[in-house]
Write the structure tokens for this entry.
Amino acid sequence: MRELIQSEFKKLQEFICSQLEIFDGQGKFQMDDWSREEGGGGRTNTLVNGRLIEKGGVAFSAVHGAVTDDMKKQLGTTGNSFFATGVSIVLHPNSPHIPIIHMNVRYFELDNGTYWFGGGIDLTPHYISLKRAALFHEKLKEICDSVDESFYPTFKKWADDYFFIGHRNETRGVGGIFFDHQSHANTSLSKEQIFNFCLTLGKAFPFIYQTQMELGKDESVTEDQKKWQMLRRGRYVEFNLVHDRGTKFGLVSGGRTESILLSMPPVANWEYDFKPEKHSPEEFTINQLKKGIDWLSNGK
Amino acid sequence: MRELIQSEFKKLQEFICSQLEIFDGQGKFQMDDWSREEGGGGRTNTLVNGRLIEKGGVAFSAVHGAVTDDMKKQLGTTGNSFFATGVSIVLHPNSPHIPIIHMNVRYFELDNGTYWFGGGIDLTPHYISLKRAALFHEKLKEICDSVDESFYPTFKKWADDYFFIGHRNETRGVGGIFFDHQSHANTSLSKEQIFNFCLTLGKAFPFIYQTQMELGKDESVTEDQKKWQMLRRGRYVEFNLVHDRGTKFGLVSGGRTESILLSMPPVANWEYDFKPEKHSPEEFTINQLKKGIDWLSNGK
């Protein structure tokens, strides 16, 4: 089944890129094929200076090799060789009124028969709109509910906990869903069904983002809003480099740095102890960056 | 002796800020006093939009409290309460022809009688000049040699190993000196002498940087050079957030985030798989970002 998963993930990358190019209407993805000595490789697609997307990365990889001591420690596993394939996306828009978005679906397999799927989607608005956050969560709930009604509440909480910037005591954005180590052993689904769930999520991704792009693209942008966007991108960098387990594991385990750091924004700013004005949309946003918010009800 | 160290470090902060203001000729430091619930506090001085310095931070702190389980694990110690004081500096200049510089001196003491000093200075040129790197290292060697001739070679190697961006296989810059856990038990010096060494280093810092500022400030700057500077600042962010033990320990142990992340540049850029042109000064710089370079000889 691994060949099927790999080839479907590769097709998913192509599908997502072609949809995003249509919605953007200007930017084109550049493909970069790479291979790694230890086995396997990938294709890293990047789009810069689009009409709506300032910098976007859609990466596919399928790698295999020996399980290193580091991996054994991290995974607590007894396998000797592994296979891993996935699609990872981060999009940084031009406008502060369009959110940053991230999506990932991945499959991991060991020679001892163990396998699991993981993934997630989360949204990082520079300015939080309760209505738009609700639209986003409604769509995720719909996809989750179509396979198992326990998924959305479980994976929504998992996202709140995962996409959390501890040293800022802030969530990265309005969350979304996150899941890991999913196999027939710990879900109601068969391997095929979990795989199909990942694919459904991946195929819905461009349309989920299209909604957010459409809603934000015509709003006018002030200089102060641009500045705020750059500061929020700084927080995105902090999350990815300090807290994101995928990024950290990739960087210390000899992963391909340029593909891992595709998530970095084109430009980010830092300012000492910046405090938004009282009762401003910036302050409203900060106040919403909390775990456990019920975006579905709040947006009504 | 802890009161003396604390008050001398505080004076050192004032001295460095006043010298930097004189050299910059335009920027003024803003002071921000803070305290922490668990005990102690600090003063964080920041300068933005100077003539030569775009963003600079000079932080003093003196904190005390109970040794937490995290610290016990990290330090391998049996003490119950600690005291720590230090001065930390990172300066990001406007011009890509002036290097980023970092300096730190610190003192740590436990209630069981254990203490140590640590610190270092390292230079991160956006464009490496062998001559300017040699001037920098010559001054550090002179200060080291005045107390112990083994210091420079030992601490220079330590800096090469510490200021290394593993996932890029690059040093952060041309290195400098780094030392930690220095006490009368493991050096030729008494406690007073190690302390004086730290003070000498700290007092020399503004003049060391003045030399680098003077040499770079009148060089004209192209758009491509600005772009390169922003990409190198991205690397600086990567080092600090992914590898710097001080930053990581501070962020996970509940340190004051704004003071710890004072080291962040005002603006940083990322571009997928950027490669400098062959035989360009940018390529020359990349090729010099190696451990073990003898800057003293190379600059002759």
